[in-house]
Specification:
- The two termini are 19 Å apart.
- With 200 residues, the chain is mostly helical.
- α1 crosses α3 and α6 packs across α8.
- The chain has 8 helices and no strands.
Length: 200
C-alpha cells in the first residue's frame, strides 16, 4: 500500500466519513453518482458552459448563517466510498480489515508498541481463541477483546511463557496476512476507479 492511499483511508475513516454520514450532503453524493451515468452505464459528459445567461445580482447578507460544502472534500469522500464499495463487493473481510485498521480502532492503538496492526488481533483465529479462553478464565464481561489481548501482551513481558509467545506470534502473523490481502483487494479497485481522487 502506498503512502498516498494510506493517508486517504486514514482521512476517510477518521474525518471524511464523519463529515458527510449524517448530512444531507451524503444523499447529494449518492444522487450525483447515480446521475453521472446513462442507462447503458456510460459516463455522461459535462455540459458546455452556458453563454447566453444574464448576470445575477446577489445581495450581501453578512449576518446570515450559511454553509458552503467544500467540493474537493466531497469528491475525495465520494471517490474513496466508491472504491470501498467495490472492495466490499469483492471481499467483505478485506473491507472490514481496512475499516478497523485505518479507522478509530486503528487510530486508538497507532501509538502503542504493536501499532495499528494490534487493532486486527481480535479478528484473527489466534486472537479470537485467546479472547474466548480469557473469558472462560476471567469471566469479566466488561473487558473488551483488545483489552484482553493487551493483558496477555503485558503478562508475556512480565512473566514470559513459550505457549503464550507462540500464540501472540501467530496472532501477529495472521493479522499481517489479513492486512496484506486487504491491500491487494484495494489495489485491484484502482483500475475500476473512474476518477482520480483530488489531493488535499
Amino acid at each position: 500500500m502506498n503512502r498516498r492511499d494510506e493517508d486517504l483511508l486514514i482521512w476517510f475513516y477518521e474525518e471524511g466519513i464523519g463529515a458527510f454520514s449524517r448530512s444531507p450532503l451524503g444523499v447529494a453524493l449518492e444522487r450525483q453518482a447515480a446521475l453521472a451515468f446513462d442507462e447503458a452505464g456510460r459516463r455522461i459528459p459535462k455540459a458546455t458552459a452556458w453563454t447566453h445567461a444574464a448576470d445575477i445580482a446577489h445581495r450581501h447578507r453578512p449576518g446570515e448563517a450559511s454553509y458552503m460544502p467544500d467540493e474537493t472534500l466531497l469528491l475525495r469522500a465520494a471517490s474513496v466510498s466508491r472504491r470501498l464499495r467495490r472492495v466490499a463487493a469483492a471481499n467483505a473481510r478485506a473491507e472490514q480489515t481496512l475499516e478497523v485498521y485505518y479507522g478509530f480502532i486503528g487510530a486508538r492503538w497507532a501509538r502503542s508498541t504493536e501499532g495499528r496492526l494490534f487493532a486486527l488481533y481480535p479478528l484473527t483465529e489466534a486472537g479470537a481463541r485467546l479472547v474466548l479462553d480469557d473469558i472462560g478464565v476471567q469471566r469479566d464481561a466488561t473487558a473488551l477483546p483488545h483489552e484482553r489481548i493487551s493483558h496477555a501482551l503485558s503478562a508475556q513481558r512480565s512473566a514470559p511463557s513459550e505457549a503464550r509467545r507462540e500464540q501472540l506470534a501467530r496472532m501477529r502473523s495472521q493479522a499481517e496476512r489479513r492486512l496484506v490481502e486487504s491491500w491487494r483487494v484495494w489495489r485491484e479497485t484502482e483500475a475500476a476507479n473512474d476518477t482520480r481522487v483530488p489531493s488535499r
